[in-house]
Amino acid sequence: MPKRSNDNKYWVGVDLGGTKMLVTLLDQSFRPYARKRKKTQAQSGKDAGLTRMIDSIQATLDDADVAPEQLNGIGVGCPGPLDLDAGIVLEMPNLGWKNTPVRKRLEDAFGCPTVVMNDVDAGVYGEYRFGAASDARCVIGVFPGTGIGGGCVYEGSILRGKNGSCMEIGHIPVDPQGSLCGCGQRGCLEAMAGRLAISAAAAAAAYRGEAPNLLATAGTDLSQIKSGVLAASVEAGDKAVEKLLRDAARLIGWACAGVVNLLAPDRLVLGGGLVEALPDLFQEEVDRSLRKRVMPAYRDAFTVVTAKLGDDATAVGAAAWAEHTRQ
Ligand SMILES: [Zn+2]
């Protein structure tokens, strides 16, 4: 443990998800110092949810014997549409939140500057500052999980839209006749190559008897076939599942070729649940299909790397972005 002193300054990063919230207290150099993980309670609505977040931050400070006056700032990363300038979560259906003034409530409670940002942007910024993409001029982050998140850090700043975040890589159209996506359109990348699409196809393969190991461990229940289960099935020799995953990774690489042709990044970071479970498979297939598909001038101008910060990326990145915006 670092020596404690009242002169020490700290940061707080919050990774707010649909089912859990992870509060991380970070030291001056953004090294995690204390953590608290809480389940979010969907049914309780926005006031109870905000109170729960404030209580979790306070409890993390109390456990570490840090006073609110010692906080430099707070960064909150969350999914869903945001008003970035006002620090408002416009909608988070999983939590029953609508027009939730997260920044104001946290600033009132802790008396320090607070930023609210997209969770994937925070993760990519974390990798840019402290992880797999440090010193890159243009970083593209691609995080395949249930959906496929994307973000871009360009010359040290997060690329954003007028009011909210941008880089919805998961909603790049890849097939006009493809499956229906959660956004209402057909054939988006995440509808074709996200974890839900892969798991649904894997469940069908198990049902047909083509993935015996998967059938034995998880059956054909879609909700049981998560990233770790898919990885274990490949490890145990289910060739049909391995093919589904390689096809999905290749499609992600194919779609990302368009992003590389637009932005000419020098680093592409792969992260998220599926990549954490199968890092070599994703790195290999995305890299190969990308290089085959991009314009010749860009072919050797970038590297594909795997994210390094794991579960800490969003909290660390959000806190570091709070520092960036304070300057
Ligand atoms: Zn979509």
Bound molecules: zinc ion
Order of helices and strands: EEEHEEEEHEHEEEHHHHHEHHEH
Order of strands across the biggest sheet? 3-2-1-4-8
* Helical proportion, percent range: 40-55%
Number of strands: 13
Q: What Rg is obtained from the alpha carbons, in whole angstroms?
A: 20 Å
End-to-end gap: 29 Å
Strand content: 15-25%
What's the mean pLDDT score?
Answer: 94
Low-confidence segments, given as residue ranges, are 1-5
What is the molecular shape?
Answer: globular
Coarse structural class = alpha/beta
Q: State the helix count.
A: 11
* Largest sheet features: 5 strands, mixed
Question: What would you say this structure looks like, in words?
Answer:
The protein is an alpha/beta fold. The chain contains 11 helices and 13 strands. It has helices at residues 45-64, 102-110, 119-130, 189-193, 195-207, 212-217, 227-235, 239-263, 273-277, 279-293, 313-326, and strands spanning 10-16, 20-26, 32-39, 71-78, 82-83, 88-92, 97-100, 114-118, 138-144, 148-154, 157-158, 267-270, 303-306. The strands form 3 sheets. The protein has a 5-stranded mixed sheet, with helices on both faces. It has a 5-stranded mixed sheet with strand order 11-10-9-12-13, with helices on both faces. Helix 3 packs across helix 11 (313-326), helix 5 (195-207) runs antiparallel to helix 8 (239-263) and helix 8 (239-263) packs across helix 10. The longest helix is centred in the C-terminal third of the chain and has 25 residues, at 239-263. The radius of gyration is 20 Å and the shape is globular. Residues 1-5 have low confidence and may be disordered.
